[in-house]
Specification:
single chain; 278 residues; mainly alpha; 12 helices; 0% strand
């Protein structure tokens, strides 16, 4: 009886904890959406901020967010995936591999404000306060995530696949290109999609490197000039301007984008899992 009571009590406690976590998440999502979605209008999404017309638009911030995501991925994906392939398939010094893995795990836990400070000293002082400096800072920040997720995906490939390819006369790179990478592309894509979510939600590092400008530019001009992303714009409208209606509207947009990215990562994993079983 005592054991049954203990088991029932622990099960009830775990259910209570799970319910509290779900309730907190639902409350946060619901509160942000309820406060923000009524303030989202087409004029806000399609125009920029104008002091003369007394209008508040976030089109420049949306474009800057898209630009900085694309620029960051163009830098971090080749570096992260290439480094993971080398460490997993080519590197023979296991101590060096272990040291790099430990360093990557340590870097992934460093607060983003430190990355922003380093990015300001290295990239912003060299290139100026611009989106390119912010993208390079975010690339350094997300490099450990891409590296580790790709490594774990590569390690899931059975050694028998490699041995079979070598037995058929395939070289090292041909085996990686035709056997290993197609077999673990789902994990690599999932890591990249989750990195996009982290890029979208980053603000501390961009405050030091990308700037605060609300100007519509093409991608080539924006990379060389100051620009605010959605998260930075949220901070500016809430902290500097005290315009909480626009701040909650931006928060609702970011919330929806984050939910969409997580759903996409889940669907990609399920899709590739089904294709693998077929």
């Amino acid at each position: 009886m005592r054991r049954k009571a203990y088991k029932f009590g622990m099960k009830a406690l775990m259910l209570l904890c799970a319910g509290l976590v779900c309730a907190l998440a639902l409350f946060l999502i619901g509160y942000v959406l309820v406060q923000g979605l009524p303030n989202v209008t087409w004029e806000m999404l399609s125009t920029g901020k104008s002091y003369l017309r007394q209008t508040t638009g976030i089109l420049p911030d949306i474009l800057n967010t898209v630009y900085i995501v694309l620029a960051t991925l163009m830098v971090v994906i080749p570096l992260g995936v290439g480094a993971a392939i080398y460490l997993t398939e080519y590197a023979e010094n296991k101590r060096l591999v272990s040291a790099i893995e430990y360093t990557a795990e340590t870097l992934s836990g460093i607060p983003s404000i430190i990355y922003g400070l380093v990015g300001m000293m290295v990239f912003a002082n060299t290139l100026g306060s611009c989106l390119l400096a912010g993208a390079l800072t975010l690339a350094v920040m997300n490099l450990p995530t891409i590296l580790r997720t790709t490594q774990e995906s590569l390690k899931t490939i059975p050694d028998a696949w490699r041995e079979g390819a070598y037995g058929l006369g395939a070289g090292k790179w041909r085996c990686i290109r035709t056997i290993i990478l197609p077999g673990c592309v789902d994990g690599i894509l999932t890591g990249c999609i989750l990195s996009v979510g982290r890029i979208l939600g980053e603000s501390a590092a961009l405050l030091y490197t990308a700037g605060f400008a609300h100007v519509v530019n093409n991608i080539f001009t924006a990379m060389r000039t100051s620009g605010a992303t959605l998260t930075v714009a949220l901070y500016v409208y809430a902290k500097e301007d005290g315009n909480f209606e626009v701040a909650f509207a931006i928060a609702a947009i970011l919330m929806l984008l984050t939910l969409l990215i997580n759903l996409t990562a889940t669907l990609v994993g399920v899709l590739f899992e089904k294709r693998r079983k077929l």
